[in-house]
Amino acid sequence: MRLNEGWLEDARRVPSPHCDCRPDDESPSLLVVHNISLPPGEFGGPWIDALFTGTLDPHAHPFFAEIVHLRVSAHCLIRRDGEVVQYVPFNKRAWHAGVSCYQQRERCNDFSIGIELEGTDTLAYTEAQYQQLANVTRALIEYYPAIADNMTGHSDIAPERKTDPGPAFDWAKFRALVAAQPDKERP
């Protein structure tokens, strides 16, 4: 995977209006892993794209009426089949973390990249999702090396409010995949 002006070349682009400039053009130094499913516990469909672009139909599902007012986004979503969707370029601030703190530094959106996995806290993530998350992370580390030592979950930066990516996320597996060389580079 390669980045071009903050965008992944291989990702499907769905630009979100829910972003802005990072303060002082700060370079990202933290990766935050999230999960999302809309409606809760259901996968597929256009609903995550609609939420992140501010076009969610509050009448399409009873739950949507509760969240239609939210102005949120993430940099990327990795769907169950491994498709990568990018909403915000990495050099911009996506609105994914909310009230948050990492290593005594508040406002994590200012210095982080948020990646959503289509899933729930308790359902195992797919192999395709782990592979793509590792691929995206390796690409990010090439541009933003500090991320290599700063990868965490939403639950770790907002423990009073959030539980994702949850106990179903295998951090050891993810970190091992990031550290491994991609197949095409192996002898």
From TrEMBL:
Chief place of localization: cytoplasm
Record-given protein name: 1,6-anhydro-N-acetylmuramyl-L-alanine amidase AmpD
EC category name: hydrolase
The UniProt record lists the EC number as 3.5.1.28
Q: Give compartment(s).
A: Cytoplasm
**Cofactor(s) essential for the protein:** Zn(2+)
Q: Which organism's genome codes for this protein?
A: Phytobacter massiliensis
The chain positions of domain N-acetylmuramoyl-L-alanine amidase read: 16-166
The coiled-coil regions, if any, are none
Which is one GO molecular function term here? Answer: N-acetylmuramoyl-L-alanine amidase activity
Q: Which NCBIfam families match?
A: PRK11789.1
Catalyzed reactions per annotation: Hydrolyzes the link between N-acetylmuramoyl residues and L-amino acid residues in certain cell-wall glycopeptides
- Which key words tag this protein in UniProt? Cell wall biogenesis/degradation, Cytoplasm, Hydrolase, Metal-binding, Zinc
A GO cellular component annotated for this chain's UniProt record is: cytoplasm
The record, for InterPro entries, names: Amidase/PGRP_sf, Amidase_domain, NAMLAA_amidase_2
